[in-house]
Structures are given as C-alpha cells and as structure tokens.
Amino acid sequence: GTPSDLLIDVFKVQWNSGSALDLQTIMNLKGMKRSEQAAMLEKFGVDPATAYKGAAAGATAGSMTENILALQDRSSDVAAKVNSDLIHMKQKVEDFRKAFR
Question: Who contacts 50 (Cβ-Cβ below 8 Å, separation ≥6)?
Fold first, then answer.
C-alpha cells in the first residue's frame, strides 16, 4: 500500500476530483488512527476542527461500500479508455509503417 506520508499526493494524482470524504474513506480502509486521519485531513486542506470532527465520526460501512463501488466503476472506465487509446496508437504506427513500404 501507499505509505501514509505520500497518501495525499498519490490521492490527488490518482483521483483529482476526490473529496475529503473520499480520502477519509481510504484512510479508514487503511486502518489509520483517527488522530492520524485528522492530521492528514488538515494537510489535505480541511479546517482543523472539521477534520478532527470528521475523523472522529468516521465513514459508515454503507458509505464505504458505495465509494468502493464508485472506484471500481471508475477504474473500469479508465481501463477501457487506455485500451481504446492503445488500439488507436497501434493502428497509427501500422499506418505509418505502411506509408514507407
């Protein structure tokens, strides 16, 4: 898994539209302590009081399940786009090769 000190950077790169709640869900899944979560949420840009209150409340099992399903849907969309781009790239390379034969 991602080291805690890199979690926010990796989160922003992998899920640039992710919210503080999404980040908190990931931290819950990683089993991070509430105090660590509050510090990470503050580092993410959430007001310290709100971060601590949110970390103390935690995400519910239902919301975690919904977020996991949303992540799975997004990952399959990304995989389909990458596959499509790869197919187009291969076709362009083949067309380029044929032009010089």
Answer: 41
CB–CB of 16/48 below 8 Å?
Answer: no
- pLDDT, tens digit (0-9, with 9 covering 90-100), for 63-74: 656 766 777 777
What is d(CA 68, CA 74) in angstroms, rounded to the nearest whole number? 10
Using one digit for the tens of pLDDT, what is the confidence trace for 84-93? 888 888 999 9
Give the integer Cα–Cα distance in Å for 54 and 37: 9
Distance CA(2)–CA(11), nearest Å, equals 9
Whole-angstrom Cα distance, residue 37 to residue 27? 7
Helix, strand, coil percentages, rounded to 5, for the chain: 80, 0, 20
How many whole angstroms separate alpha carbon 96 and alpha carbon 22?
Answer: 44
DSSP 14: H
